[in-house]
Automatic annotation (TrEMBL), chain A:
It comes from the Bacteria. The keyword Membrane applies. The chain crosses the membrane at residues 26-48, 60-82, 117-134, 146-175, 196-215, 227-250. InterPro entries: ABC-2_transporter-like. Pfam families: ABC2_membrane_6. Keywords: Membrane, Transmembrane, Transmembrane helix. This is ABC transporter permease.
TrEMBL record, chain B:
It comes from the Bacteria. Keywords: Membrane, Transmembrane, Transmembrane helix. Pfam families: ABC2_membrane_6. The keyword Membrane applies. This is ABC transporter permease. InterPro entries: ABC-2_transporter-like (IPR010390). The chain crosses the membrane at residues 20-44, 56-76, 109-135, 147-175, 181-201, 236-258. It comes from Oleiharenicola lentus.
Length: 262, 270
């Protein structure tokens, strides 16, 4: 375990050194992410200029939900996105050999090699949105709720990570997944909507089959209404299920990998 | 004249072929775009549950707006023209155009038209398939003037779309990496171009300001004409005038960037 922690820390140190070499790039990307987050909040703001509630959620409840969703997404982008995004290209080009030749778990090294400091910096802004909304709502969560919120956000990151790996893993079979990986973000749009807004087929698809709605709604509800043991246990179970599925599919795909470079 | 046109006709046909190779990729992208429509449907459906009219428009009108916007994006949006131009400059492939009697803008524009023809037709497939589901939520006004002003507006929007992508691509003469600029511009475009919410829902002063910016004319303007968010023919004609001005300005900036960029270009390699 400590071996993997050391590996990750070495990679993280390299990414931060690289960021310091390309400071201009870092600022531009941090600004880009900040702007996209503002766009999401602006949308909430514009909708609530014309209506008081959306699926029973008031403006600041919705801000809290959007903030939570952005927080999960920033962590996903910060810790995993670059590595997983590159993975599809590496499989196609044969550069994936590098990861196969490394000692240790291939999935770990291939999906955690790069971090994006600009996304991690912006996770503070997303956290700021959550805290601001909570204050506007006059919430006073106790430390158990806050701890549970943190753990649920971590579950959300793991679920998104697993779904992203599952989006890229087809590259082992069909070589190019460019259309699919780019479209992953469309799915994440669902996580900014209140669960109560989903009915019928949409509820089955985006709440039960693809838990994109649950990952943001459950932690947000914990802050708003306190810890619900049943919901929390459900989220942990879904997390284990999706992570297990991602590990299984990745390793099945790895057996199919036959380098393109040599 | 005919020989000149023939050059770009061939470029267009080659562009058509190369885009047809990626038809599955475009189809996948089109399919996932419909997920965005589901988000729109759920979010705005929930918002309209509390208020039958938002900004003076009902749910069907707002949903139609987003569907039309999606179709327009596939028909005229510049997907990755900026990156392709950037690649050609950074990789030195642009050198060949400097040695041949080919206008680089016209060459790139021919490929853009070919690509949009493919993606524009491909997005119609999932739209037709889903029509039984979404048909009852679509309302399009039938005034003839909308077609007379909307079609030239759509054409000018395509020029502005491509022109902006062309300018960003040419920035590669100066910068190694343009991705940050492009995505920052996309974020601005998504708000001020009406992709996140119809612009008329913004505060009045901001809506007025947006009407003088190029983003308004990239997509929102023709879509607003076709879907009935813009109902005054004379205001539409004034808009068409402003749009034409922006098209000329952007094309002018593109020509200037090309001239100045070439002065900096060192054409390293064989």
């Amino acid at each position: 375990m400590s071996h993997y922690a050391r590996l990750w820390l070495t990679s993280a140190r390299y990414c931060i050194m690289r960021m310091m070499m390309f400071r201009g790039d870092f600022f531009v990307w941090a600004l880009v992410e900040l702007f996209w987050m503002t766009v999401n909040l602006l949308m909430v703001s514009v909708i609530y200029r014309h209506t008081d509630t959306v699926a029973g959620w008031t403006k600041y409840e919705m801000m809290l939900l959007v903030g939570t969703s952005l927080l999960i997404q920033r962590f996903l982008m910060g810790f995993f996105w670059s590595s997983i995004f590159e993975m599809g290209r590496n499989i196609r080009s044969g550069h994936f050999d590098f990861f196969v030749a490394q000692p240790g778990n291939v999935m770990f090294t291939a999906t955690t090699r790069k971090i994006d400091p600009d996304s991690l910096i912006n996770s503070l802004v997303a956290l700021g949105v959550v805290i601001y909304s909570a204050r506007q709502l006059g919430l006073q969560p106790d430390w158990i709720d806050i701890l549970a919120y943190g753990l649920m956000v971590a579950c959300g990151v793991i679920i998104h990570y697993s779904m992203l790996v599952l989006c890229i893993a087809p590259a082992f079979w069909i070589t190019s997944v460019q259309g699919i990986e780019g479209s992953y973000f469309t799915l994440s749009e669902f996580s900014r909507l209140p669960r109560a807004a989903f009915v019928g087929l949409a509820k089955v698809a985006f709440v039960w089959v693809l838990p994109v709605v649950v990952v943001s709604n459950t932690p947000a509800s914990t802050l708003l209404h306190g810890l619900n043991g049943q919901l929390a246990a459900g989220l942990v179970a879904i997390t284990v299920l999706w992570f297990g599925l991602a590990v299984f599919v990745f390793h099945r795909g790895l057996r199919r990998y036959s380098s393109a470079s040599s | 004249m005919l020989a000149t046109l023939n050059k770009y006709r061939v470029t267009f046909l080659v562009g058509l072929q190369s885009n047809l190779i990626y038809r599955v990729n475009f189809a996948v992208r089109g399919f996932f775009s419909f997920f965005h429509l589901i988000v729109v449907f759920i979010l705005w459906g929930a918002a309209y549950a509390g208020s039958p009219l938002i900004g003076g428009f009902n749910f069907a009108q707002t949903f139609t707006y987003f569907v039309a916007l999606l179709v327009a994006q596939f028909m005229i949006g510049a997907f990755n023209e900026d990156y392709q131009i950037s690649e050609e400059i950074r990789g030195g492939m642009i050198n060949q155009f400097l040695l041949k009697p080919v206008n680089y803008f016209a060459y790139r524009f021919s490929i853009y038209v070919a690509a949009r023809l493919v993606t524009g037709l491909l997005i119609l497939l999932p739209l037709i398939v889903s029509l039984p589901l979404i048909g009852e939520h679509l309302v399009l006004p039938a005034d003839p003037w909308r077609l007379a002003v909307g079609l030239p507006a759509l054409f000018l929007s395509a020029i502005i779309q491509f022109g902006i992508a062309y300018c960003f691509g040419l920035l590669s003469f100066w910068f190694l990496e343009i991705q940050g600029f492009v995505i920052l511009s996309m974020a601005l475009e998504s708000v001020l171009g009406g992709q996140i919410f119809p612009l008329d829902l913004m505060p009045e002063w901001l809506f007025r300001v947006s009407q003088f910016l190029p983003y308004y004319y990239q997509m929102y303007f023709p879509v607003a004409i076709f879907t009935g968010r813009l109902n005054d023919p004379s205001a539409a004609l004034v808009g068409l005038g402003i749009q034409a001005c922006w098209a000329v300005i952007i094309l002018g900036i593109g020509a200037m960037l090309w001239r100045r960029g070439l002065r900096l270009h060192t054409a390293v390699g064989g």
